[in-house]
Prior knowledge:
Chain A is mainly alpha-helical. Chain A is 82% helix and 0% strand.
Amino acid sequence: xxxxxxxxxxxxxxxxxxxxxxxxxxxxxxxxxxxxxxxxxxxxxxxxxxxxxxxxxxxxxxxxxxxxxxxxxxxxxxxxxxxxxxxxxxxxxxxxxxxxxxxxxxxxxxxxxxxxxxxxxxxxxxxxxxxxxxxxxxxxxxxxxxxxxxxxxxxxxxxxxxxxxxxxxxxxxxxxxxxxxxxxxxxxxxxxxxxxxxxxxxxxxxxxxxxxxxxxxxxxxxxxxxxxxxxxxxxxxxxxxxxxxxxxxxxxxxxxxxxxxxxxxxxxxxxxxxxxxxxxxxxxxxxxxxxxxxxxxxxxxxxxxxxxxxxxxxxxxxxxxxxxxxxxxxxxxxxxxxxxxxxxxxxxxxxxxxxxxxxxxxxxxxxxxxxxxxxxxxxxxxxxxxxxxxxxxxxxxxxxxxxxxxxxxxxxxxxxxxxxxxxxxxxxxxxxxxxxxxxxxxxxxxxxxxxxxxxxx
Amino acid sequence: xxxxxxxxxxxxxxxxxxxxxxxxxxxxxxxxxxxxxxxxxxxxxxxxxxxxxxxxxxxxxxxxxxxxxxxxxxxxxxxxxxxxxxxxxxxxxxxxxxxxxxxxxxxxxxxxxxxxxxxxxxxxxxxxxxxxxxxxxxxxxxxxxxxxxxxxxxxxxxxxxxxxxxxxxxxxxxxxxxxxxxxxxxxxxxxxxxxxxxxxxxxxxxxxxxxxxxxxxxxxxxxxxxxxxxxxxxxxxxxxxxxxxxxxxxxxxxxxxxxxxxxxxxxxxxxxxxxxxxxxxxxxxxxxxxxxxxxxxxxxxxxxxxxxxxxxxxxxxxxxxxxx
Lengths: 457, 324
């Protein structure tokens, strides 16, 4: 910039450049014998600085620095605001995906268990379909466990524990199966052990993890909301400084407008408002997703896990044969939970969820018939209804729920990811635009002041 | 005196009736004129019970002997017959005695055969007349006390503390506790396990858990279902399992890497458990058991389920004092 050599009106004038104290312009006639006390560097500097800011040119310099800094500050703060929100929304998306993964693990484990216990109830060779469903459940859970721990290192420890339990669980299940194949009743003990292990050492851990991922999502949302403060602060400071500078300048120079400064103000204002709009839109979109797709996804995964758990309990009640009251109690609790969640989630007019809720109710009707038969002492008929695959059986009814809720979950979780992607989408670009705009405004402001400075030469 | 004679007479009548026809009809006994009639002679009905005297602990009610005041012979039987179902507590994890055959999904075993035979006697057939309640050992007495079941056929040891809560049929099998260890373990008898401070598993509420208390050094592991012990045993979490030889033999049959260590260490007479107040039903069941001792059904069932040599069913001992 051309502000380095102003006409010096002030007396002690001096070195302009820092460190120029012992400059080459030292008076030649003086003998070096008595060197003038060499002024301390800082003294020289303060003197120079004071001189630099004295008088109108000095004030102009102050105005120049202030406006340039204000514009840069706007650029940086706007950049921080947009990228913080972008980062927070990216975190929310990553954690939402992670939450779906954790819930997928949970659901697949209980669904594998439900198929297993149901197959056991049939006796003899397990139906190939049930065996396949069990293996699919375990395979999906294992694969998702690997995905989930690869995607978040802080979850990895818990997931490793769960993985360990799943390994033990499948080992016990295979022991149960081997004993069953030999016709040994010991298989039942292994099955009980396996089921209990899953419920004591894997599912609660997954539930805790799911809650902590939900907390992280909450945290990301509030970080995203807080990001707006940066933009507001940057915009306010920049506008105030620019306007004050221009008002002062107008009074000093009798020129109403300094065009470069006006341009700088316009850049800040327009970019600030546009960015505010984009950021508001992103947050609004994210907020809507939360009360829509996120809420539905969460509801569906929880309801599905509860429903599969209830299905297991139904089989365990029959296996316990006459001593199944605790399992039936568990069934009622889990089924009530699932139904309440589905009812709440389908209140938003989501047809998929409404269909799933209806299918679950139908399944519960069949469950009631099973209980009625067993309670009347007709265990064999109850088992036939619980394990058969005909159109009116519990398995058929539950399959309808599984299909409907699985489809609904597919929709909502895709929607959730897409919405958060959309919300995040334009923010990084706008962050850079804002930074560049801030720099451009700073250049304009500096130029505008320097034009006035030149009039003082 | 008069009552005893009457009772003995009734036995003869009943046995005769049983061997003659298929549906036993209990002779109706006139209720005693006084509920606290003194009984003093030949087989003295003892109000006390001594677990150290075999005859004392297995003593049951003779078929046709007097009933508590106000009871009628056959009233429990009539109720069961009217309901069309007998509710029986059994175990489902005890190979040989009561287990769920994983291949058929049906309950099988010695005790199940006995239950089937009882149903056949009561209803003429088994199908649809038995409601099984699968229980672990600790649930048996509460279920009898609450009336959840009419009968428990689940290798139940007759002893005095239990007589205070429920009633038993006459002894139908004589068992004893044994210890199961791993094939290569250095234990030859339970004392070895005690000396080595070994961890030994048994079921809660079983006589095994009482017996373990006599071995102070053994670290007990108590589980709900006795077959859970076998899971722990095969996983190496416990060194041994103590239970009745009937159970241990079943485990051994399912695991050739196990070994039965030492002789029977206790006397475990088995009886069918019946609610204490259903004295008439105890008498009825005892009549059936008496018949099966004589017609060879019990012995045949032993031969069907248990490895040779086939033992003889223990004789019945009667004359227990009525519950107050």
